[in-house]
Specification:
Oligomer: single chain
Structural class: alpha/beta
CATH topology of one domain: Nucleotidyltransferase, domain 5
Shape: globular
Helix content: 25-40%
Distance between the termini: 62 Å
Number of helices: 18
CATH class of one domain: Alpha Beta
Largest sheet: 7 strands, mixed
Radius of gyration: 22 Å
CATH superfamily of one domain: ATPase, nucleotide binding domain
Strand order of the largest sheet: 18-19-17-16-22-23-24
Strand content: 15-25%
Length: about 525
Amino acid sequence: MEKSDILNLKSEMTWVLTLDIGTSSLRAMLFDATAQPTGAEVQIRYEMHTTADGGVEADPDEMFEHACHAMDQILAAAGPDAQSIKAVGSDSLVGNILGVDAAGRAVTPVYTYADTRAAREVTELRARFDERAVHQRVGTFFHTSYLPARFLWLARAHPDLLARSRWWMSLGEYFLFRWLGRRVCSFSVASWTGLLNRQELAWDRELVAALPISVEQLSPLSDFDTPLHGLVPEFAGRWPTLKSAAFFPTVGDGAAANLGSGCVNPTQIALTVGTSSAMRVVLPGPTSPHSPLPPLSSPTEGGERGLGVRGEVPPGLWAYRVDKNDELIGGALNEGGSLYAWMESTLRLDDATRTEAELEALAPDAHGLTMLPFLAGERAPGWVSDARADILGLSLNTRPIEILRAGLEAVAYRLDLVFELLRTVAPDAHEVIASGGALMHSPVWTQIIADVLGVPVMASGEPEATSRGIALLALKGLGVINRMEDLPARLGVSFLPDAGRHEIYTQAVKRQQKWYNLLIKEKPTT
């Protein structure tokens, strides 16, 4: 479909305002009817608050003010063209929650996916439930990233905050609640909580019944394509050009990144390395009319996707939602750009150009180090909430640049484990498309990952794939496009694997996993 055909479907001036609510920054952008940036962009940077006991939090009202200021600035940058904004869409870091009182104000911090203080509650949940059955029902494990353990931790550590909170919602929900006076949670964001029944597309009542909250305290569920209208008077006066705009429910950042990078079907695996990292593939969900899979309640043997039972989620991976029809199967690591930044700062490698050149000059796995990169606990594929980082093999000859290279390789090894699991559900996947600021700023790291995986990795040609994914969803919701494929993503440089390096790394993956089993998986309890 040509751009001119797209533009003729709707007004030639149909713009979408996107908000990407991330771990380290909030970005507002404007996209046109062909999902291309108009040039108007605002980024506000911030830092999460960390505590010695594993807390990773944010101030919800400070985050809300960041969002409001970003909206102010992007509308000012648009000038008279702001009249063309027909929709506002957003994505957010998912696995975050905050409590809101009866007056509509936040009474707790924002607790993020990286907060590991609920590790004790994870153990409790595993003792109370059949985790394998829960995993198939809601698509997630018991882990500090998800809400079941978080709510039990709050009951233990902060019962006063639990009692003061009338509603529980994510940041994106909170923003829409403040702007439009409505509570709504997309299937996408809900799937990241660990409380969405993936077959029924409803809050899982069995799990909620075991928690110190009620279903009524969670937001009503909706698909992304059901927009909200009508800013409350305060914001209708502040942003008059948005009074008639459609505000779409927030979706998960991982879903948006997949769509924006062009990974919209089972032949493409998306790799994203930003603050954290993930690999994901879009597949028809068990509730989709397009799904070849029967409901989970009536499984058949010999699944077409390489699974023992059709419709199951592979052990070690999660199943989130893109929308009511499509699931996002994959695995995420807490480590990505955050590990790079921590090592860069700690090792005092402050010249980025020189660092990249020195990294490239090092041979693969030649430093004699094995790193377990769990600075913030482990997610996929082992899901050990209280895992901690280790570096094995240090000597007096070890240089800072070698430690950094070992860290980048270590993350690649963990991604390789996820990749091999994904191949069991997406055997036809022949492309890995990479996006995310951390990878885009380090071609060496992208090449390492290609060598570890042993398949070509193509860099996305979309510099802001996540925001573009939101724009695509909004354009589809407005009826400007019918399918995501109507506006294909651009591709960039292709990183081809080297067979010799791949063999070296294959052995290194095994070595890392041996130490993982000894130090993390099988460590004695005290």
